[in-house]
Design brief:
Layout (H helix, E strand, L loop, with lengths): L1 H12 L7 H10 L10 E7 L4 H19 L2 E7 L4 H11 L5 E5 L14 H10 L5 H7 L8 E6 L2 E5 H6 L9 H13 L14 H12 L17 H17 L11 H7 L5 E4 L2 H8 L16 E4 L13 E7 L6 H11 L2 H11 L3 E2 L10 H4 L9 H4 L11 H8 L2 H10 L4 H16 L2
Helix pairs in contact: 3-14, 8-10, 10-18, 10-19, 17-19, 18-19
Length: about 450
């Protein structure tokens, strides 16, 4: 019996027409070709892009091109950005799931033991494209391995209605928090408050609260990455100021917003300004007949971008960094690596970059001088996002402990609790206790 099985296998492997009836029947019954002839599939899980044209580009053009060039099948799956991290956890626990998963910020450190080292690919791209910005390198690499392949930085700037600010007496967007509060109060009195999420959402909430805290001199830990120092005068002052700012000038519904609610509020003309990627402006460019001002003019003509204001300790930014992690449980690691290399060739990455129109800032120096940044001055402020970003955990490293603090929304919740009525000192003490649980473990 053993000899019969061996002959059948040998005949199949040799490509002869002599296939045993039993073997042929088995193949027909399963509906699958023999294992050696099966095409490899790379499953890539990424966020639903805030620029719809990009996901259309991937599905209709780039994924078919990749399949043809690499001889693989690409399964592109998109989900809400807030759903990515639970999918990572589920894949690791079950030992099965997408081969490549998009990661945000320093989440890479949380999964360092569950991902494949991508140093070879990352360093090759860095060498070819003038180097990686330190922000991208610090978040994707712990100095020993690249836990994620740097993909893009989604710059966070304040989108604002130019005419509404002018009507309130401001020819430029406020560059200090005091002036910001003053302007917000005037605008709210006219039914045009500023808007900001303090909810559990991946981008706009921490993108606002971290730089805001830093600008007042607050920080989570010292440079040693161990000593929790959030309970400081700077942090308490920032919380007290936020309490007044929230009541005076903000849309108080922002406590429950995710990363899409502020877009909708701005586009429906219920808020005058909000921290965001460039997706609001890009959407008004895409649909100029749909989005118009109260005077009937295209809204895209009345939108400008500005960085977050500066505080007593300076001006800061925290911009969403995206990378793609290759999971250790993947059975298609070699194919996934080839797919990553293909995505990051200059010609292919350029298609992605151009489709974003400045919403995504590349992680390597080369793209900072790309002509795209000169095509629309409204988008130019996003050009330096990758160069100037500061990572969560400052002034310590953006390691797994800092990533845990970010994932638990401790900094955002500190401000949310305070604007809902908790005394500033108590809100800061709560954050201190939560961070000590993480950093003392």
């Amino acid at each position: 019996m053993a000899k019969t099985k061996r002959r059948s296998v040998l005949k199949l492997a040799g490509g002869t027409a002599a296939v045993s009836l039993g073997g042929l029947a088995g193949i027909l019954a399963t509906g699958r070709t023999p294992a050696y002839a099966q095409q490899k599939t790379v499953h890539w899980l990424k966020w639903v892009d805030f620029v719809p044209a990009t996901d259309q580009l991937f599905r209709k053009e780039m994924m078919p091109e990749a399949e043809k060039a690499l001889g693989i099948k690409v399964n592109l799956e998109t989900v809400n950005g807030n759903d990515l991290q639970p999918r990572v956890t589920a894949g690791i626990q079950s030992g099965a799931g997408p081969d490549l998963i998009m990661s945000f910020n320093n989440q890479t450190y949380l999964y360092a033991n569950s991902v494949v080292d991508l140093t070879e690919i990352a360093e090759a791209v860095a060498k070819r494209e003038g180097g990686l910005f330190p922000y991208a390198r610090s978040i994707c690499s712990d100095g020993k391995m690249f836990m994620g392949m740097p993909w893009a930085v989604i710059g966070g700037m304040i989108a604002y209605r130019k005419s509404w600010l002018e009507e309130a007496g401001y020819t430029k967007f406020p560059d200090t928090w005091e002036t910001y509060r003053e302007a917000a109060k005037k605008l709210k009195a006219k039914g045009r408050p500023m808007g900001q999420t303090l909810g559990h959402t991946f981008g706009d909430a921490p993108g606002f609260t971290y730089p805001y805290m830093w600008s007042w001199g607050g920080k989570e830990v010292e440079a040693d990455g161990k000593t929790v120092v959030i309970n400081s005068k700077g942090t308490i002052d920032s919380v007290k100021f936020m309490q007044g700012l929230w009541k005076d000038g903000m849309d108080e519904g922002g406590l429950a917003w995710d990363d899409t609610n502020n877009n909708r509020a701005f586009l429906s003309q219920t808020i005058s300004a909000t921290l965001n990627g460039a997706s609001i402006y890009i959407e008004t460019l895409r649909k100029p007949d749909q989005y118009k001002t109260e005077k009937g003019m295209p809204m895209n003509k009345d939108i400008l971008h500005a960085p977050l204001p500066k505080g007593p300790a300076g001006q800061f930014g925290f911009h969403l960094l995206q990378s793609n992690m290759l999971m250790k449980y993947s059975k298609n690691q070699d194919a996934a690596k080839e797919f990553l290399k293909w995505l990051h060739t200059e010609a292919n990455y350029a298609k992605f970059f151009n489709s974003q129109k400045g919403f995504a800032t590349p992680c390597t120096v080369k793209w900072e001088s790309d002509k795209l940044w000169d095509e629309d001055p409204v988008m130019t402020p996003y050009k330096v996002a990758a160069r100037l970003g500061q990572a969560p955990g400052f002034s310590g490293p953006p390691n797994a402990k800092a990533a845990e603090g970010l994932s638990k929304y401790i900094i955002t919740d500190m401000y949310a609790k305070a604007v809902q009525g908790m005394p500033a000192e108590d809100a800061v003490k709560w954050a201190e206790a939560e961070l000590k649980k993480i950093y003392s473990a």
